[in-house]
Amino acid sequence: MEDEQLLAALQQHPVLDLYQLFQEVGQTQSLYTLLERLSSLKEHHHLDTRLSPFKPHIEALLAQFDRTTPDSEILKSVAIQSEIQQRGHSMSRYIMASDNHRHFSPSVDLVMFGDSITEWAPWADIFREISMVNRGLAGDTTAGMLSRIDTTLNVKPKLVCFMAGINDLAQGYSVDHIYQNYIEILTTWRVQGISILVQSTLYVGCRLQGLNVQVSLLNQRLQAYCEQHEIEFLDVNKVLAPNQLLSNRYSCDDLHLNAQAYQAWSALLQPKIEVLLLKTTQSAIDLSSMT
C-alpha cells in the first residue's frame, strides 16, 4: 500500500481499524513497518488520528503532568512507570501460567515445550488424535524453562518437542550460555527416559535479522549434540526460513508465526511425532514382555 493510500486512511478516519488496514497491506511488510509509516505520516501532516481504538499506556502516564513539569521529570517518571507496567504484565502471565501448569497435570503422551512461538500454536487443534499439553510460555528463556521443567515431568510424557533460544539471544545471552542450558534441559528428560525431539531455533525477519548469525551458530551446535547423543533434531527453518530469514508470509512482526506458518511446521512435525510415539510405545511393550 502506497503512502498516498495510508495518508487517505489517516485523513478519513478519526480512529483506524488497524487490523483491517494490515490485511489490506497484505504480506508485503511487517506490522511494525506499517506502524512506523503511519506514525511518520501523522507527524508530517500534523494529524491526530488514532492508530487503533486501544489507548497506549503512555497516554495515561503523560496525563498526570502539566506544562510546568520539567521534561527531565516527565522522562524519568515515564521510564519508571513503563518498566513497572511491562515487567508486571509479563511476570503476572508467567506466574499464573506456570502455576496452572503445575496444578493441572494430566498424564499425556506429548508435551510441546518452548516460548511464545510454541505457546501461540493451536497444537490441540492440530494434534487432535494425540493426548498432549502445550507448555509454551511467552517471553521465556532457556533459564526460565529450566526453572519450570517440572511442568513437563509432572504429566509423565512419552515425548517432548522442544524449541527455544530466540528470547535468550534477543536479551544478549551468548550461544554458549544457551547451549549449556539446553544440555541441562535435555539431560533432565533423558534421565527420566523421555523421548525428545529438538526443533531448530527459528530465524527471525528483517527487523530482528541481526540475531540470525547467532541463530545459525546455535542450531549447528544443537544439531551436532543431538547427533552425538541420538536425539531427534528437526530443522523447521527449512520450511519457514529456507533463506535464513523469516518471511512476512509467515509472520506479521518478524518473530511470531501465523496460521500458514503453523500449517507448514506441523506438516513437517506430525510424521516425526507419530514415528517417535510409536517407537516409545513399542519399546514399552518389549520391556514389559521381558519382565
Automatic annotation (TrEMBL):
The lineage of its organism: Bacteria, Pseudomonadati, Pseudomonadota, Gammaproteobacteria, Vibrionales. Pfam families: Lipase_GDSL_2. The keyword Ribonucleoprotein does not apply. This is SGNH/GDSL hydrolase family protein. GO terms for molecular function: hydrolase activity. It is an enzyme of class 3 (hydrolase). PANTHER family: THIOESTERASE 1/PROTEASE 1/LYSOPHOSPHOLIPASE L1. Keywords: Hydrolase. Its EC number is 3.1.-.-. Residues 113-264 form the SGNH hydrolase-type esterase domain.
